[in-house]
Design a protein that fits this description.
Length: 233
């Protein structure tokens, strides 16, 4: 199997495919570390990470994660209020957790990379420039240096780059207005044992600032707003 894209989804695919006994090559434009947004994990994440061999306790012990036990929302003109996942998600068929994690994404992704590499995944750090296809089947990918990668199966883990769907002219339907996210990191203790949102919904489109403690001493702060606001300024 050739997995195109070494983000968290591509790396997870590499781990599971290698554990299933398949030979795997993973191709990505640039080697690690990758710096990206996405530190507040979904409620299903602890179980999924355990399947990948990255235990929640290990991430906490190494201080590259904190607990996400609730969500605190502060809205302009209203008292702050708290949200938490419903207990129903703990039951079948979902069986999700109701306590999840915030993580340092660069550190988490590196742990999953190590796991995939230890299991025998081959990595090629080159950009895929051409997708070769016959009818509706991808047969090979060619990198910027001319390396041709052939496989029986291909996994497109390029995310919004949509490598295969662009090459095969598969249309998509976009959802909502385009957004821009600006974020940085601050060395400061956590504000809450959860995610804090400071929201402004006075306009026709919601804008918000997040406060996400990704370690006991470091916090991610980001601002999300409509893209056309920046274009107009």
């Amino acid at each position: 199997v050739a997995v195109i894209g070494a983000g968290i989804a591509g790396l997870a695919a590499c781990v599971l495919l290698r554990e299933a006994g398949l030979r795997v090559v993973c191709v990505d434009t640039r080697p690690y570390p990758h710096h990206k947004v996405g530190e507040s994990l979904d409620w299903s994440s602890p179980g999924l990470l355990a399947r990948l061999g990255v235990a929640r306790d290990r991430l906490l012990d190494e201080q590259i994660a904190t607990y996400k036990k609730k969500i605190v929302v502060s809205e302009i003109g209203r008292p702050s209020w708290m949200a938490s996942p419903p207990e129903e998600i703990r039951r079948s068929p979902l069986r999700f957790e109701t306590v999840t994690l915030h993580v340092d994404r660069a550190a988490l992704d590196s742990r999953v990379l190590e796991r995939a590499r230890d299991l025998g995944t081959t990595f090629v750090w080159e950009r895929v420039t051409t997708v070769a296809a016959t009818d509706d089947h991808v047969t090979a990918c060619v990198t910027a240096t001319g390396r041709r990668i052939e496989a029986r199966w291909f996994v497109d883990a390029t995310g919004t780059a949509r490598l295969f769907s662009r090459a095969m002219s598969i249309p998509i339907t976009t959802y909502g207005r385009q957004k821009v996210c600006l974020w940085s990191y601050f060395d400061t203790p956590p504000l809450y044992d959860g995610t804090a949102f400071f929201v402004d919904n006075r306009d026709r489109y919601l804008s918000w600032t997040w406060d996400i403690p990704i370690s006991p001493s470091r916090t991610s702060v980001g601002f999300v707003l409509p893209a056309d606001v920046l274009r107009n300024h």
